[in-house]
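Request:
You are asked to prepare a plain-text protein record giving the amino acid sequence and the C-alpha cells, at your earliest convenience.
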Amino acid sequence: MNYRFYAQTDAGLTRDNNEDAYSCDEAAGVAVLADGMGGYNAGEVASRMAADMIRTEMGRWLTEAGAMATVQDIRRALEICVSHANTAVYQAAHDNTQYSGMGTTLVAGVFRGSDLIIGHIGDSRCYRLRQGELVQITRDHSLLQEQIDAGLLTPEQAALSMNKNLVTRALGADDSVLLEVREHRVEAGDLYLMCSDGLSDMIRDPDIARILQQPLEPEQRTKALVDTANAHGGRDNITVLLVQVAAGAERRGLVARLLGK
C-alpha cells in the first residue's frame, strides 16, 4: 500500500490560541494528532511534546526494525513511545508551575503494509471511509461515552450534552496512562480521518462522510472540513489529518507509464 498524508489545523472562532498539534512521518507511515489541555499555553506544550516525541521515536524505531517488524512488535513499540511521551509531559508539568495540570488527548496511527495499528487516549478520533461507509474506529474515553455504554444516554441525547469535553483518560495527567490499541486491515481506496473534538463536536458523522466523498483534492477536503466546523460555530481548535490509501502496484504502474517503461 501507498499512503499519502494531508493535514490542517485551525484555532477556531472562539479560542485565542491553538492547543492542537499534529506530526507526521509519511515515509515511515506514522501520523499523530493531539489535543492539549491545561492552563494558559500549557495545552500547546503538552500536545506538541506528545506529537513530536511519538512521531520521532516511532519513525526511528520503524527505520531500525525494518521489514522484519511484526504487527505485535509495532504495537508494543507504539505503547512504549506513548509511555515515554506521557512521562515527559507529566514531568514537565511537575517541574514547571506554569504547566501544572497540563495533558493531552491523543490518536496515533502506524500504517505498515496492509495493516493499521491505531492507538488513542481521550476523545480525539480516527474514522475510516470505505466504499462510501464512514465508521469511527476509535471509541472515546469520555464521560459521555461511558454514559452511552451504560444505557444512561442515547447517542442523540449525548450529542446535545454540555459535558462533551469531560475525558476519562489523558496523556500526561498521571505518571502512567493506558493506551487503547487496535489493529485494522487496510484496503486500497480507504480514506482515514484523524481529528480533534473541535471537528467531531461541530459536524455530525453523516456530514463528515458527505464532505469526504466530494470530488475534491485531499487538501481541499481538509479545508472543507475545517471551514464547515467554523461555519457551525468553531467553538474549539480544529485539526484534521487525512490518510489516503492507494495500492502499491497501481502507483508503480503509473510511475512506469510516466517513464515510458
Remarks:
- The two ends are 21 Å apart (CA to CA).
- The first strand starts at residue 2 and ends at 10.
